[in-house]
Design goal:
CATH superfamily: Gcn5-related N-acetyltransferase (GNAT)
Distance between the termini: 4 Å
Shape: globular
Number of domains: 1
Strand content: 25-35%
Number of helices: 8
Helix content: 25-40%
Largest sheet: 8 strands, mixed
């Protein structure tokens, strides 16, 4: 499947292409840097950390001319798009700076329930927004979930990102609970997190294809 955004269509495929790690890291930082900064700042170190520990099989990407212009990461089991363990954090930031960062990173952990795929979020290049790429990435995420026998897709969206929440709602996600997090407003800039679910249907299963 392709988007008609701009002059050139965007092809959506599964996986992060080799050689596009830094590009994906830059898109992720642009979209989520405000949230990630307390754990991974300064930006140049954070982007490098993300690029170095990407799991290529845990994302879907949109490409124009072979270049990634959008990405959606997901977690199945204990593997997500963004990796890096305790030793990796301490190696990148040192012991004294690394330990508090590990505590912040722990706040982002979301373990899937049985039959559930957890989506990390969508990042689309600013020059390619508004042309349907986000929707195509969501469709492919649902197809991945169907391929793995999942019953639903789950995601969390923060209260300062209403545009993303509206996109998810247009594509079948509904809010199942909202957690107030006033203690995080000063640290990360948001005060509530909405958990949203979307059921995986037979139509999602019939749309699987791996590269569209």
């Amino acid at each position: 499947m392709v988007s008609t955004e701009g002059r050139r269509p965007a092809a959506v495929r599964r996986g992060v292409p080799e050689g596009e790690e830094e590009r994906v890291a830059a898109l992720y930082w642009e979209a989520f840097g405000r949230k990630l900064a307390p754990a991974l700042d300064p930006p140049e170190v954070g982007r490098r950390f993300i690029a170095d520990h990407l799991r290529h099989d845990r994302g879907v990407t949109a490409l124009v001319g072979g270049r990634v212009v959008g990405v959606a990461g997901y977690r199945l089991g204990d593997r997500a798009l963004t990796g890096g363990g305790v030793k990796d954090v301490l190696s990148a930031y040192g012991l004294f700076r690394g330990l508090p960062r590990l505590a912040v990173l722990a706040l982002f952990e979301r373990t899937p329930a049985e039959g559930e795929l957890v989506m990390d979020g969508i990042a689309v290049d600013a020059a390619h927004r508004g042309g349907g790429i986000g929707g195509l990435l969501l469709e492919e995420i649902a197809a991945v979930a169907a391929d793995h026998g999942c019953r639903r897709v789950r995601l969390d969206v923060i209260d300062v990102n209403p545009r993303a929440k509206a996109l998810y709602e247009r594509h079948g996600f509904t809010t199942v609970r909202t957690e107030r997090t006033p203690y995080l407003r000063g640290l990360m800039g948001f005060g509530a997190v909405a958990t949203m679910h979307r059921p995986v249907t037979g139509a999602d299963a019939s749309a699987t294809g791996g590269s569209r």
